[in-house]
Specification:
Strand content of chain A: 15-25%
Mean pLDDT of chain A: 83
CATH superfamily of the largest domain in chain A: GAF domain
Number of helices of chain A: 10
Shape of chain A: globular
CATH topology of the largest domain in chain A: Beta-Lactamase
Distance between the termini of chain A: 40 Å
Oligomer: homodimer
Largest sheet of chain A: 6 strands, antiparallel
Number of domains of chain A: 2
CATH architecture of the largest domain in chain A: 2-Layer Sandwich
Number of strands of chain A: 9
DNA sequence: AAATCAGTTTCAAATAATGGAAACGCAAGG
DNA sequence: CCTTGCGTTTCCATTATTTGAAACTGATTT
């Protein structure tokens, strides 16, 4: 189960249950969840009931299985829109994608992992691991290393300590020391490569999206395969990607303004009605 | 804000806070949230702290603003995959989209609203979060009416009572009575039209995805414009869409009940979603 | 019929949440 | 320099919820 953040409140436990359901990855029965949770039967049972009644889980009468609920999807859509990064980056990813014709990723750091927040497929799509919403390792992906390289020094040790250091390929860096050296190279160079460190044959260039203060917001990468290109050619795209990430960063900061709470008319189906 | 589900547990309150943040739609300050929540200052503060520490919200030190957190996006991705409908329907939507070349939607019912779960544009296969989770009215969209028409009679009044009945166009049905009549026509005809009831110039055909027991799982629609086609031509696509929804329904049941038989006795059709 | 299993409910004790009030920090104004 | 006001955070006695062992239900198996 990896990161169990030592439940302290009821809410934390409820969320942990959500994670457990999510981790099963399929409709799951009570006993299965019980076996994979640290909670006693009655506690788990009540948590599940609460979550179901709240719409965060749904429960199928026939199969007696729990799945994640639709309320999550609704919340997540807003989350995606509300995150300052993703919606702002969108048109720029489109532009980048059109220009280079390769797979393009936008990622953010979540705890010590990379989460792919948006993605454009290559004109000739290549099967690969990443997918919007999916999480991946930070220490052996282009976007991950680009972000780690610009993390405040104080945070780095904690984050490195949470990496799995699994050797995906024989080029994977599997120790904090070698990674630290790589991060220094990345800072010097201004961008990161992924040289088949996560999947064989998959390479990429990645640049971080940084605020003017230097805080890491996310990272953008262009990914391809060794069959189609090589690191040097990908590196040649770095200036283009730099333009993109700088534009994104700039627009993000412009957007930041919080907003006074104008007396909005409470109800009303008015505003954001779906395009269809 | 209409649906405030009268929090009874702590978890419910925490989730209500999430909804409030989501409803603001932008990074929001404490005082703003306080003004829009039913909780006392200290309570709200602690709920926010919990949610932030759990990653469901994120808090920006500089602007002192709360936004929905990245953990939500991660969960929602799994939710989408795990929902029996969306991943199963995906290839069939692709097929339908390729065949008709028009906008295709997959929707489900969430409370009394329609939630768009997947979508195909004529051209590019848009990344998921750009549209998943968008909600729309049920009483004046093709997918919405198709699903309402097949809801258990006992639930219909409650759902209709939650509609806004806003007159989007002069063809919008704005009373329960006229809608009930329309739903009867839809049941008789076997599929629903949207005749510019939500947006002028936008028309569609929609069919519900039903289990063998008749429970509503979702709906699929093909949408176009009056400039390009008319209702009659869209209606001609109904048999094709019927094939699609039936295949989806069938695969859903196969997937969920690998070797279950004896499908009788229980009470009436048990809809999988919908109001508490 | 008895045993087993999966899921549900009970209840007194333990624990966590509550919220009024007050303190804190900070910027603008006297 | 000392107010004043606003937004944020902490305190703590009170209150209500959560807890979990164990008992119960009702299927299915032996």
């Amino acid at each position: 189960m990896a990161a169990s953040p030592a439940a302290e409140g009821t809410v934390a436990k409820a969320l942990e249950v959500l994670d457990i359901v999510a981790a099963r990855g399929r409709p799951t029965r009570f006993s299965d969840l019980l076996a994979h949770s640290p909670f006693p039967k009655a506690t788990l049972y009540r948590l599940l009931q609460t979550l179901v009644s709240q719409g965060m889980l749904s429960f199928d009468q026939h199969t007696a299985c729990y799945t994640l609920g639709i309320r999550l999807v609704r919340l997540a859509h807003v989350a995606w829109q509300q995150s300052s990064l993703a919606p702002i980056a969108r048109p720029h990813l489109d532009r980048l994608s059109a220009e280079v014709g390769e797979t393009v990723h936008l990622a953010q750091l979540d705890h010590a992992q990379v989460i792919y927040v948006d993605k454009r497929n290559a004109r000739n799509p290549v099967p690969m691991y990443s997918q919007a919403g999916k999480v991946g390792p930070a220490y052996c992906t282009g976007v991950g290393k680009a972000m780690l390289a610009h993390l405040p020094e104080a945070q780095l040790p904690a984050v490195l300590a949470q990496q799995s250091w699994h050797r995906f390929t024989d080029k994977t860096l599997t120790t904090p020391e070698t990674l630290m050296a790589e991060l220094a190279r990345i800072r010097a160079r201004g961008f990161a490569y992924d040289d088949e460190e996560h999947e064989p044959g998959i390479i990429c260039v990645a640049l971080p999206v940084l605020t003017t203060r230097g805080a890491v917001l996310g990272a953008v990468s262009v990914t391809s395969t060794t069959a189609r290109t090589d690191l040097a050619s990908l590196g040649a795209l770095a200036p283009l990607v730099r333009d993109i990430v700088q534009t994104i960063a700039q627009e993000t900061e412009t957007w930041r303004f919080p907003e006074e709470s104008a007396p909005q008319s409470g109800r009303g189906p008015e505003p954001c009605l779906v395009s269809r």
